[in-house]
Amino acid sequence: MIRIAIPNKGRLADSTLELLEQAGYRGLPQGSRALHADLGNELQAVFVRAQDIPEFIDDGVADLGVTGRDLVVESGRTLCELLDLGFGRCRLVLAARGGGDAEWILNEGARVATSFPRTAARWFAERGGAPTIVPVSGAAEIAPHLGVADMIVDLVSTGSTLRLNGLSEVETILESTAVLVSRVDVCAGAVRREAIDEVVGALESVIRAQDKRYLMANVRRDTLEQVKQILPGISGPTIVEVMDGGAHVAAHAVVDQRDVPRVVNALKRIGAEGILVTRIERLLP
Ligand code: AMP
């Protein structure tokens, strides 16, 4: 049995459960407030706060964990990042009123409000600054208004909260997404690597399929050379007979989601019919 630590609430919780479900692990009833659950396929989930997950992994309480990269960095624990899960995308930024400039930012006596004190202190130290860190547990953007800080280090995704509070980004400190992590020795294969690989492989196949589509079209046999140019697929399109006496064949291929409009148009131009585009549940190389 493998144990995976999952955020019990917040921005990453729902997407994590959704991904696990798509990867074939048993879903949980909506609104369930369970502390742990059997997800099937030898995987047990424990639901904890996202910021506690790096510590739980490092201490061996769970074999795998899903949390934000920002929280792994802030924890100061050295963990192994097995997979970038793609959701929960945000940036940790330094922001100041009016933007500030590099020199002033590194001034002695500058005050930085943040719920990422360790990451912020390290970032400043690497640049020769040593501001006073004002730890807050949230809503750092209010601190400059209250006069308790000159700058903030906070997470942003669109930047609208910063702008609303009259703050401008000075620099990005860290780019974050949700990640699947394990302890370093687990990652190195010292323990239970096979069972871990099974979970990683299942999640990876779902992630890989997310921006791909399966496209099918009936084309005239004499256009096959053009079809091959339009539909490169993974290793060329799959061609299937159509029982119409030989005039047509069906061409199937995996295409990038963003290429779908262009590919469909190109196929139409060479007379393709019955074009079908479907989602792919999993894609294994
Ligand atoms: P929570 O505070 O529990 O909602 O989750 C916070 C985690 O979600 C952060 O540590 C990030 O990893 C992630 N996240 C993704 N987008 C944002 C955002 N715009 N603001 C804050 N956290 C975000």
Task: Describe the 3D structure.
The chain has helices spanning 13-22, 53-58, 69-75, 102-105, 117-126, 143-146, 160-164, 184-187, 193-210, 224-230, 260-269, and strands spanning 2-7, 36-38, 43-48, 64-68, 79-84, 90-97, 111-114, 132-135, 151-156, 167-176, 178-183, 212-220, 238-241, 248-256, 273-279. The chain has eleven helices and 15 strands. The mean pLDDT is 92. The chain starts with a strand and ends in a 6-residue tail after the last strand. The strands form three sheets. The protein has a six-stranded mixed beta sheet with strand order 2-3-1-4-11-5. It is an alpha/beta fold.
Residues in helices, as a percent range = 25-40%
The small molecules bound here are: adenosine monophosphate
* Sheet having the most strands: 6 strands, mixed
Secondary structural class: alpha/beta
Spell out the helices and strands N to C.
Answer: EHEEHEHEEHEHEHEHEEHHEHEEHE
Number of helices: 11
Strand order of the largest sheet: 2-3-1-4-11-5
Q: Give the radius of gyration.
A: 25 Å
In percent, how much strand structure appears in the residues?
A: 25-35%
| Number of separate strands | 15
Distance between the termini: 26 Å
Estimate the global geometry from the Cα principal axes: globular
Low-confidence stretches: none
Mean pLDDT across the residues is: 92
What labels would you give this structure?
alpha/beta; six-stranded mixed beta sheet; 30% helix; binds adenosine monophosphate
